[in-house]
Amino acid sequence: MTVMKIVEWPAKVLETKSSEVVEFNDEFKSFVRDMHETMDEAGGIGLASNQVGVAKRVLTIFIPWEERRGEPPEAKADWHDKRWTFVNPVITKKTGKFKGQEGCLSFPEIFENVERAAEVWITAQDEYGKSFDVHANGLFSVCLQHEIDHIDGIVFITRMSPLKSNLVKKKVMKRHRLEAEELENEK
Ligand SMILES: [Zn+2]
């Protein structure tokens, strides 16, 4: 297994609509395993394929249950502590509204409130090509919507107010500038 490099915004691949997966061969299954390993290593609960530079409709999720997470504390659901792979996922229905703080492996150190649907119904395939349906609520629902946005080429700053989104963009650009300067000074 291999830990892949996570692409950070403003990489173009993050704003590229990913293409359907049609071949479920060994190479693909090994790529999915690498995605899970990369997500775990980065300490993320979700990862979309274009975040490792591959514009395919695949995402991985693993949400460990922590007794005290959230306010009020989250009850343990059947989607906790489960390793999920969604290939070619489609949201078939959504209801309600939920606003919560989100982070993104492609935007290190940025945490902002984003409004999503509270519950979603998804139809997808697993890494073997087998179809399944899932009803998601809570953090699982938020995570799925965030990752499906990714494979559609939508980064979470798009879901923020223009003011917030501009602030985040400036913050990220400033950090990149400082990092470039540091590199320059080391020469
Ligand atoms: Zn993300």
Summarize the structure.
The chain has helices spanning 26-42, 138-151, 162-186; strands at 46-48, 58-61, 84-95, 98-104, 107-116, 119-125, 131-136. With 187 residues, the protein is of the alpha+beta class.
How would you portray this structure in words?
- The chain has one domain: Peptide Deformylase (Alpha-Beta Complex), CATH 3.90.45.10.
- The chain has 3 helices and 7 strands, in the order αβββββββαα.
- The chain has helices spanning 26-42, 138-151, 162-186; strands at 46-48, 58-61, 84-95, 98-104, 107-116, 119-125, 131-136.
- Strands 1-2-3-6-7 form a 5-stranded antiparallel sheet. A two-stranded antiparallel ribbon has the order 4-5.
- The mean pLDDT is 95.
- The protein binds zinc ion (ZN).
- Zinc ion is lined by residues 104-106, 146, 150.
Name some characteristics of this structure.
7 strands; 187 residues; 3 helices; Peptide Deformylase; binds zinc ion; globular
The value of Rg in angstroms is: 17 Å
User: How many distinct helices?
Assistant: 3
Number of domains: 1
Helical percent range?
25-40%
The CATH topology is what?
A: Peptide Deformylase
- What percentage of amino acids are in beta strands? 25-35%
What is the subunit organization of this protein? single chain
As residue ranges, the low-confidence spans are none
Under the CATH scheme, which architecture would be assigned? Answer: Alpha-Beta Complex
The molecules bound to the chains, other than polymers, are:
zinc ion
Summed over residues and divided by their number, the pLDDT gives a mean of 95
The major sheet is characterized as: 5 strands, antiparallel
| Alpha-beta content class | alpha+beta
- CATH first level: Alpha Beta
Q: At the fourth CATH level, what is the homologous superfamily? A: Peptide deformylase
Number of strands: 7
- Distance N terminus to C terminus? 34 Å
Main sheet: strand order: 1-2-3-6-7
| Shape category | globular
